[in-house]
Design a protein that fits this description.
Shape: globular
Number of domains: 1
Helix content: over 70%
Number of helices: 17
Order of helices and strands: HHHHHHHHHHHHHHHHH
CATH superfamily: MFS general substrate transporter like domains
CATH architecture: Up-down Bundle
Largest sheet: none
Radius of gyration: 20 Å
């Protein structure tokens, strides 16, 4: 049996946490795909889609420094459970988005969901090494890294199909029910989701400062928490997806398929690139290559006019992005001490999501006035430029000795 499936069948707590993550991720996209097709229909503008995506990522990014600290100070199981329940309630607010005058409610609801996700993400990511044995961490990380892609394929595809067949509003109700089931799975996790603390927690801002000092003192860790921003700065392409699908005659189903292609790439990437985890010398070059491939793929997509070929290009781009995410997460989980892991992951997520929000706002500002293909090419080019600059800095640092604090936490 493959190692990833073995840890899933042997470890009930990991299985419950993993399925909770799967369900929550699927519900997230069951909300987002119908909403991204509903808002342009109600308002006649693609700007609202960009604002919603930016609210989803930007609010999360702004809160992550604090929520990462909470993940190191409070029971992570309770955090994840409460976040699921809050998201289930907020999804129902979207039922009130009925006219152009009520479009703002979508921003409030998505922003509130983003607050809950800001607590969920660092707590769940930091908890993973605590619910599996050390020898199972690579397999569990590869499986967890594929979860987002798997549920984006399923959630986006089904969201697009359901939106076209039944409309957006039943999708919002289904998403709320799914999030309640995700909370039930988290409640069933019994293994502690963090190590026992032997010292009283530091004040929140002092704790954040401690994590930032740790990152600054460890060049390898600093490289890893900035690597996801390359793909983040290229993620303005998501704002273009609904308009690209419409331009190619694919409609709401096409929007769902574009997001599903993104998810398929993210699903396959961690599996294809998992072997890199066994060769630490390959990690930083692998990260540089994966960023570059993402940028090149979207430059290629900007030139394509046949929808199936566009879908294939999106798969390739996000195969690279999924592998990039998985590789950087694995090293952070393995090398960052448990007492700092939530805050370091929060910083990692913050930088990634801020770059995504900035890209989506920038693209949203031009989406009603510039050809979608030009915007796709611009996003790909930005990622390539970032990849080149990151590589010049990070690859020069890879042979530098790490401080003792890092060695102690490995």
């Amino acid at each position: 049996m493959p190692p990833a499936l073995s840890v899933l069948t042997r470890n009930k707590d990991f299985r419950n946490l993993f399925t909770a993550d799967l369900i929550g991720l699927g519900a997230d996209w069951f909300v987002m795909i119908p909403l991204l097709t509903l808002l342009p229909h109600l308002t006649g503008s693609g700007l609202w889609g960009g604002l919603v995506l930016a609210a989803d990522t930007g609010v999360t990014a702004l809160l992550l420094p604090y929520t990462g600290t909470v993940a190191d100070r409070v029971d992570r199981r309770r955090i994840v459970l409460a976040a699921d329940l809050a998201m289930a309630a907020c999804a129902l607010l979207l039922l009130l988005v009925r006219t152009p005058a009520t479009a703002w409610i979508a921003l409030v609801a998505v922003g509130a969901i983003a607050v809950a996700k800001a607590f969920f993400s660092p707590a769940a990511q930091a908890a993973l090494p605590n619910v599996v044995d050390p020898e199972d961490l690579p397999a569990a990380n590869a499986l967890a890294g594929s979860a987002w892609g798997a549920m984006l394929v399923i959630g986006a595809s089904l969201g697009g199909i359901a939106s076209e067949a039944f409309g957006a509003y039943p999708c919002f109700v289904i998403a709320s029910v799914l999030l309640l089931f995700s909370a039930l799975q988290v409640w069933r996790v019994r293994r502690p989701m963090q190590a026992e603390r032997t010292e009283p927690p530091a004040p929140a801002f002092a704790a954040i400062a401690e994590a930032l000092r740790y990152i600054r003192a460890n060049p390898r860790i600093a490289s890893l928490v900035t690597v996801k921003s390359a793909v983040g700065f290229g993620n303005g392409v998501l704002t273009v997806f609904p308009l690209l699908a419409a331009a190619l005659g694919a409609g709401p189903l096409g929007t769902g398929l574009l997001f599903a292609a993104r998810g398929l790439g993210a699903l396959v990437g961690p599996v294809v690139l998992r072997r890199v985890l066994s060769h630490r010398a390959w990690l930083l070059p692998g990260l540089a290559l994966s960023m570059s491939l993402y940028g090149l793929a979207y430059l290629g997509v900007s030139l394509m006019t046949w929808f199936p070929l566009v879908l294939a290009g999106v798969v390739v781009a996000h195969l690279a992005a999924g592998g990039n995410w998985m590789m950087s997460n694995f090293v952070l989980q393995a090398e960052v001490p448990d007492a700092l892991r939530g805050r370091v992951f929060a910083t990692d997520f913050m930088l990634a999501t801020l770059s995504v929000a900035a890209s989506q706002l920038a693209v949203g500002a031009f989406v009603d006035h510039v050809d979608p293909r030009v915007l796709l090419a611009a996003c790909g080019a930005v990622t390539l430029l970032y990849a080149g600059a990151w590589s010049l800095i990070a690859l020069r640092r890879r042979d530098q000795p790490q401080p003792e604090a890092n060695a102690a936490g490995a």
